[in-house]
């Protein structure tokens, strides 16, 4: 086990900022919440205390004139869709302006998987110096092979249809503070799926993609604008212990902006993190989102599990396993410490995915997923964990998921 932990600690990345840059929109911590007072009396430990018997920072860091403290870290992850992925990430976080300013964060990352898939991403939440404005960005390049299984909830007659494609994504939203932690904003969203290869269609099969699209398309483009509302009081983006997250985005994709067709989508999301028992550090987290599309959305843009912003929904199922015009997702996860020093922890989770049938546009039977996971404290200052989860779904679906941030 020691050798395994040493290898993981050397390779894994903490996607969270350092302790000085934890929260993005968080309000001041509530000192009235006496959570885990007894545990605070025990010195906290992480992987590096265990392996090296001394305090070690697993990163190369520096502070720039922008007010952001930067760290460069190696990355390591595993997902049953793309296998093992290795890469690098540069993360910056800090308060731009006064010491009471909200925390900004920015990350630049890239990796290559053992299956030959390439991913690159720039993602950030940057506040103005005054704190009145927030810019959220999500820019991605993905060269990958992902399968689809048609539309609607899981059914026994569904088949796997492997597809190759590249994705170019550019999302940018500018928010202005409305009241306290609540922001309103306007955004632009661009998705281009290029070099699409429907492998079974090339072999002469009729596939869900060609049937829905009216042919074997090699490219689809979605280009549109959005109105957005956001509220966030979480204390830590990758391992939240208190606060809430609320988000609403209505997006209008227009041919006049370069989209293939005129269509719309609505995303509404809520996350809350109560403590159970109330005065413990144990968290019973809830995550709910609704994702609706209106009009002829491109097949690969339709709501699908694992295609949420951070790709964490639907543990127990392969990414893209459940796809439809509309989707509702609910997950709850219980997180608790196994040791008082915080080194070891565990989670148990269950999720429900409800998707519309393509023939009736009525929601079918919900697909259930569940699982358990182990947590090993990777960086006690940033409160980041090495996460090892095993999830199960219907019809024999299952998989291991390894990373450095909680699912939500």
Defining traits:
408 residues, mainly beta, 17 strands, disordered N terminus
What can you tell me about this protein's structure?
It is globular and about 65 Å long. It is built from 5 helices and 17 strands. It has a 17-stranded antiparallel sheet. Residues 1-39 have low confidence and may be disordered. It has 408 residues and is mainly beta.
In short, what is this structure?
The protein has 408 residues and is mainly beta. It has helices at 2-11, 37-40, 47-52, 199-202, 208-213; strands at residues 60-63, 69-79, 83-95, 103-113, 118-127, 133-148, 161-179, 182-198, 220-232, 244-253, 263-272, 283-294, 326-337, 344-355, 367-379, 384-392, 398-403. The chain contains 5 helices and 17 strands.
Secondary-structure blueprint:
Blueprint: H1 2-11, H2 37-40, H3 47-52, E1 60-63, E2 69-79, E3 83-95, E4 103-113, E5 118-127, E6 133-148, E7 161-179, E8 182-198, H4 199-202, H5 208-213, E9 220-232, E10 244-253, E11 263-272, E12 283-294, E13 326-337, E14 344-355, E15 367-379, E16 384-392, E17 398-403
Antiparallel strand pairs: 1-2, 2-3, 3-4, 4-5, 5-6, 6-7, 7-8, 8-9, 9-10, 10-11, 11-12, 12-13, 13-14, 14-15, 15-16, 16-17
Largest beta-sheet characterization: 17 strands, antiparallel
Mean pLDDT metric: 85
What overall form do the CA principal axes indicate? globular
Number of DSSP helical runs: 5
Gap between N and C termini: 28 Å
> H/E order of the elements?
HHHEEEEEEEEHHEEEEEEEEE
Structural class: mainly beta
Radius of gyration: 21 Å
Number of strands: 17
| Percent helix range | under 10%
Low-pLDDT stretches are 1-39
Strand content: over 45%
């Amino acid at each position: 086990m020691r050798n395994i932990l040493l290898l993981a600690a050397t390779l894994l990345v903490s996607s969270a900022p350092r302790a000085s840059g934890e929260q993005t929109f968080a309000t001041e911590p509530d000192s009235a919440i006496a959570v885990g007072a007894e545990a605070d009396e025990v010195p906290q430990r992480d992987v590096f205390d265990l392996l090296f018997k001394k305090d070690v920072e697993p990163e190369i860091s520096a502070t720039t004139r922008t007010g952001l403290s930067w760290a460069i870290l190696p990355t390591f992850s595993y997902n049953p869709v793309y296998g093992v992925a290795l890469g690098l990430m540069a993360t910056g976080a800090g308060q731009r302006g006064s010491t009471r300013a909200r925390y900004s964060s920015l990350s630049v990352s890239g990796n290559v998987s053992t299956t030959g898939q390439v991913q690159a991403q720039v993602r950030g939440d940057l506040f103005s110096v005054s704190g009145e404005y927030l810019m959220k960005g999500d820019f991605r390049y993905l060269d990958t092979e992902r399968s689809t299984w048609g539309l609607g909830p899981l059914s026994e007659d569904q088949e796997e249809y492997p597809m190759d494609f590249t994705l170019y994504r550019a999302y940018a939203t500018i928010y202005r503070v409305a009241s306290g932690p609540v922001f309103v904003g306007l955004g632009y969203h661009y998705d281009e799926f290029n070099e699409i290869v429907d492998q079974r269609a090339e072999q002469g099969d009729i596939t869900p993609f060609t049937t829905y699209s009216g042919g074997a398309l090699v490219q689809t483009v979605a280009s549109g604008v959005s109105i957005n509302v956001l509220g966030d009081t979480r204390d830590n983006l990758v391992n939240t212990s208190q606060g809430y997250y609320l988000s609403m985005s209505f997006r209008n994709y227009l041919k006049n902006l370069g989209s293939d067709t005129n269509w719309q989508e609505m995303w509404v999301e809520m996350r809350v993190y109560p403590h159970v028992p109330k005065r413990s550090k144990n968290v019973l987290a809830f995550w709910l989102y609704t994702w609706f599309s209106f009009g002829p959305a491109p097949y690969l843009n339709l709501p699908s599990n694992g295609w949420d912003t951070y790709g964490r929904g639907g543990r127990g199922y392969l990414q893209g396993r459940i796809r439809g015009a509309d989707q509702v997702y609910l997950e709850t996860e219980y997180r608790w410490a196994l040791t008082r020093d915080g080194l070891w922890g565990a989670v148990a989770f269950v999720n429900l995915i409800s998707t519309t049938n393509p023939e009736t546009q009525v929601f079918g039977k919900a697909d259930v997923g569940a699982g358990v996971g182990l947590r090993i404290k990777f960086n006690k200052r940033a409160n980041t964990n090495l996460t090892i989860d095993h999830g199960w779904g219907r019809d024999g679906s299952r998989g291991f998921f390894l990373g450095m941030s909680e699912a939500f």
